[in-house]
Amino acid sequence: MGKPELDITPQGGIDPELLAQAQRLGISIAGMSETQLRLHLQKVDPAGAEERARRWAEENAEAIKAHNAFVEEHGPFGAEWRRW
Asked: Any idea which UniProt keywords this protein has (predicted)?
């Protein structure tokens, strides 16, 4: 039994930005999952991974702020059941 075929279309679930970065670096993605590709790119292009993380945090800053405010007001999920 062989590996399932990798669907690299945008609907296939792999971030198009990761695919473009792999292509720029000449990395073959055959047989890689998005997680494997992401980990590999972190090793071979850490600056690119840091830039993606910075952009993600910037794009999601409002949601992160709202989440932190909710936790500050209500506590973390499941806190009422903690025994420690």
From this structure: Toxin-antitoxin system
User: pTM for the complete prediction?
Assistant: 0.60
Query: Rounded to an integer, what distance in angstroms lies between the CA atom of residue 67 and that of residue 37?
Result: 29
21 three-state secondary structure: helix
Say which amino acid occupies 73: E
Half-sphere exposure of 5 (CA within 13 A, CB side): 3
- What's 2's DSSP letter? -
Number of Cβ within a 10 Å radius of residue 41: 20
